[in-house]
Design goal:
By secondary structure, the protein is α/β, with parallel strands linked by helices. The chain has helices at 70-84, 96-108, 127-136, 140-151, 157-167, 191-201, 231-240, 256-259, 261-273; strands spanning 2-5, 8-15, 19-24, 46-51, 89-94, 112-118, 219-223, 245-249. The protein has one domain (2-130, 193-273): Rossmann fold (3-Layer(aba) Sandwich). The protein has nine helices and eight strands.
Length: 277
């Protein structure tokens, strides 16, 4: 479905019925289908709300994202919440979507029943550590691809898609699990969103102090073998948000919902099931 909210058109879909669980995808530059089919078993108990951020996927893609900030993307999510008629939602954000879910919580926590930052960080101060991790575990082809991809903007969506396909094994503890990802043609890549995020909004992202104000139930999740947002980043979020829970999936990289799907879904089902909406 498409809906005009907050001055843009967002593509979204809902799956299932029950307590609302909104999912924020990462990237930026990918789309909500990265969550599928992995989260779908939860639809027997929750209403999953999946959408593409402004400038991503099948949501509106303007010629330029100039002026768009994390505040804009958080406001888009809240406008979608209002459109769907929910006073409170549980919110899960993965990777860059975790940046945005933390930004959302700082601004709109009165509309949160619970918050789940998944494989993410409170700032991107660890960018050199992430690059070193990537290079240390890369094949020669990946090393070249990572270095070129981080040094230059992508000229088009096809080039960005090829980049993501090449480095995808980095996101898994067991690189064979990368083969479980659906065919890349199912995804709608956006070089515009990726280029803009990493040139403009990432350099100023830092909520390490603001998240100390978050009072809603929070479950921080990390993968023990995550190269880009190590478990130490999850620990920082956990320590900043009083009363939060922290779980590290020992056999996972950046995608515990794929590598340890059964245990991951069990955790989400039990934790969200206890929230007060």
């Amino acid at each position: 479905m498409q809906e005009n909210v907050n001055g843009t058109t967002l593509y979204y879909e809902t799956i299932g019925q029950g307590r609302p669980l909104m999912l924020m995808h990462g990237g930026l530059g990918v789309d909500h289908t990265f969550f599928l089919p992995w989260f779908e078993p939860l639809a027997d108990e929750f209403q999953l709300i999946l959408y593409d951020h402004r400038g991503n996927g099948r949501s509106e893609r303007p010629e330029s994202l100039s002026g768009v900030t994390h505040d804009t993307w958080a406001a888009d999510a809240d406008a979608l919440r209002q459109h769907l008629g929910f006073d409170k939602i549980a919110l899960l954000g993965h990777s860059y979507g975790g940046f945005l879910c933390l930004e959302y919580a700082v601004r709109y926590q009165q509309h949160l029943a619970g918050l789940i930052p998944l494989c993410t960080a409170p700032d991107f101060a660890n960018s050199q550590v992430a690059l070193d991790n990537a290079l240390a575990r890369s094949t020669p082809e990946m090393v070249k691809t990572v270095q070129e991809g981080l040094a230059n903007p992508f000229p088009d969506d096809a080039t960005y898609a090829a980049f993501m396909h090449t480095i995808m094994p980095l996101y898994f503890k067991n690189t064979e699990n990368a083969k479980r990802m659906p065919d890349g043609e199912l995804y709608s890549y956006s070089s515009l969103a990726h280029n803009y995020a990493f040139s403009t909004t990432v350099p100023t992202y830092n909520v390490s102090e603001q998240i100390k104000s978050i009072k809603v139930p929070t479950l921080v999740i990390s993968g023990a073998d995550d190269w880009i947002t190590p478990a130490s980043e999850g620990q920082r979020i956990h320590e900043a948000i009083a009363g939060s829970d922290f779980v590290v999936f020992q056999e996972s990289g950046h995608m515990p919902f794929i590598e340890e799907q059964d245990a991951f879904l069990k955790l989400i089902r039990e934790w969200v099931g206890k929230l007060a909406f």
